[in-house]
Amino acid sequence: MNKLNQIFNIFLFFIGMVITFASLRLPYGKMAKPGPGFLPFWCGFLISVISLVIIISYFRKENKNSKEIESAFREINHFKILAAIGSMLLYAFIFEKTGFILSNFLFLLCIIRLVWKRGWGFSVIVSSLLTLGSHIIFNVWMKIPMPSDKLIIYIKDFL
Fold first, then answer.
1. Which of 46, 26, 44, 45 is nearest to 36 (CA)?
2. CB 45 within 8 A of CB 17
3. What is the DSSP code string of 3-34?
4. What is the pTM of this model?
């Protein structure tokens, strides 16, 4: 792994620590009812831990798999990374405008179709099932308020 990758991992470690410590200002909540600080805390913590593991593995000279790891990093499919980032940006942009169900469906459809490279039928079915499952978990079971689904409201008004 080259020096630029190491600098990037050190940067990620500190970004994860900043996210973790900044999230401590928010109420954490409980496992049964997580507060607004729950997700940022664990995301920041995981970013820090993963980057720290990569940093430590770099400095361990006796690592016999370092050439295999380097070749794996060279074979990264940049299109899939850009497709995933683009899907997340699209999701963040349309979430408030379209609501929970449509934005989740489109996000999952993009990920399954572009990143996993599956067919349209499979992508639509899996996206629909996962969206329905997440709707049942978050809206029905946990009663977490989500942005109103404007598509459903439009369809109800149309009928």
1. 26
2. no
3. HHHHHHHHHHHHHHHHHHHHHTTS--B-SSSB
4. 0.54
